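# step 3/5: fold
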Amino acid sequence: MTTLGGAEFAPETTYLNTSTAGLLPRSSVEAVRDLAAKSATGSYDGSDGYESVESARASFARIAGVDPSRVALGGSVAAHVALVAASLPAGAEVLFPEGEFSSVITPFTIRGDLKLRYVPLDALAQSVRPGTALVAFSVVQSVDGRLADTASILAAASAHGARTLADLSQAAGWLPLDAGAFDYTVTGGFKFLLSPRGVSFLTVTEEAQGLLPPLYAGWVAAESPWDSTYGPVERLASTARRLDAPPSFLAYHAAARSLALLEATGIETIHAHAVGLASLFREGAAGLGFSPVEAGAGGASAVVAVRGLGERQLSLREAGVVVAARGGNLRVAFHLYNASADVRRVLEALAPR
């Protein structure tokens, strides 16, 4: 099984750590280098980067399966979650899976006036109850790659009138998505979306959009930005752009190229490729006597954790194999730039001597 990335990638290691940070395509690096050079020579006036910003918004919208008008941009998942947390009334109940990533939880905990409840991931759907205001969870768990049973969670939330907030950071870029099924989704761009840090996306259903406070509103959040550069903004954008945080041009300049590459390759194609490699690794690790974490109720995952092997991370790096250690597990992640040779390499490095 060959890679899908072609000449866009040239890793110097066996790179299996996309769940921490994805590799930047060469075209994205070149785009940043070009914009930085123009900024140094005065041939760039600091405002002609919006075309790339809007290109990134449109690309992500297609990848996530929503209209661009439902996508807000920012710089981090925590900042987007904070908007949702700020929208809840005092005393509202928020339901999380145990061990959820901290950026999904902490904006709610620091308020101090919400009722927070934690249950095992596989019990999330049946734990939604009357009075639950919001269910917040990652579609793919960061710690071990398990997939949430999104269909059951959505059905339970609908039955009890609860809203849903899904973190797609470990899913967008390899897992086919329908972000519009959730009230809100948040996505960090620096993992499977192959973008720099400083790129993130928030999707909001049309019905839920008015519930979020536009805390970051500046002139770029105006309905007519170039007519709103001085004095208070008189009219905010009628779309989710009203929730934008001012974008980092260099980061979004790269993101536009990275997202275009993912679109051109095809998320369904990437999904089949990455999941196939993950399955090979899972089978090989089990054959060596190790214990991979099951993928969960949501189906096959491109992210695989092996119980109790987190301590092998450093020795693997010394052998040229880059992985992560999370929660005591060894975590590997496969993407379009990986191939079956990478699976063989990590299994050889893990094999007892």
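# step 4/5: annotate
The longest strand covers residues 132-138.
# step 5/5: archive (pending)
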